[in-house]
């Protein structure tokens, strides 16, 4: 018998100021395509790639390179990229705190918006991605949680994402980046997100999105601030982070499975990206894996 599609939205930590949650929704579940209204002001970090369609903006690819902002009461559409559904972790702050973070990072940035967060998403650096993953694991631990540390950590993660959104939007407000260019970059992000390990050439990519090689290179960099090779490398390494800390495959299997040419190449790239060797991180993760809470309390729609 085929198991029924699963949906979980669970709080793993909660205080008067912040919440941390785990959202898991299979692509075949009824809740996948259209979300219920969000009940927190929160920042989501995707573990699996999906297309998000905000109510009043162009759709975008939410993957491990992206942080997505939601204001309370927002609803959105969702489309699958690969076979997986939506696996994301979210970090919420109460409204007055969210407003203070936005004011510090981008004064008057939320003017004209229905909530404190003025942007829908941002490309995040590796330090922010690593920080939120470590914070989620700490908050999910069955060992005694230091509430002060977790609360400060959530504020730090939200502030990091907001500062990067503020810098990025100031830097890309240029006439050359049109909605058509953003759509072209999004099409490439879809290909890269869904085919991490497959060898791809510029000719392959350009042919699949219907653009010349030169135009594609120029537009993708203008829209994302990154080359396509750099973008895919970050996706591969962030997928590797998940596999190192949460899976049983050997490091060599992880490396080859994600398209790295060798174990040594993968290990060096991982260390440069996250500041730690994958073998050391795996050992630390396995040491604490048995100390997880019983199933957390379930909430709907984050």
Account of the 3D structure:
With 302 residues, the protein is an alpha+beta fold. It folds into three domains: 7-171, Sandwich (Jelly Rolls); 174-225; 236-289, Arc Repressor Mutant, subunit A. The protein contains ten helices and nine strands. A hairpin with a 5-residue loop joins β4 and β5 (60-62).
CATH C-level of the largest domain = Mainly Beta
Q: Strand percentage, roughly?
A: 15-25%
Q: If strands are numbered along the chain, what order do they take across the biggest sheet?
A: 1-2-8-3-6-9
CATH architecture of the largest domain: Sandwich
Structural class: alpha+beta
Largest sheet: 6 strands, antiparallel
Number of domains: 3
Radius of gyration computed on alpha carbons: 19 Å
- What is the CATH topology descriptor of the largest domain? Jelly Rolls
What kind of oligomer do you see? single chain
> How many E strands?
9
Give a quick summary of the entry.
The chain is an alpha+beta fold and 302 residues long. The chain has 3 domains: 7-171, Regulatory protein AraC (Jelly Rolls), CATH 2.60.120; 174-225; 236-289, Homeodomain-like (Arc Repressor Mutant, subunit A, Orthogonal Bundle), CATH 1.10.10. It has helices spanning 95-105, 126-140, 147-171, 179-194, 202-209, 213-224, 228-246, 251-257, 263-274, 278-288, and strands at 7-14, 18-25, 41-46, 50-54, 60-62, 66-70, 76-80, 86-93, 121-123.
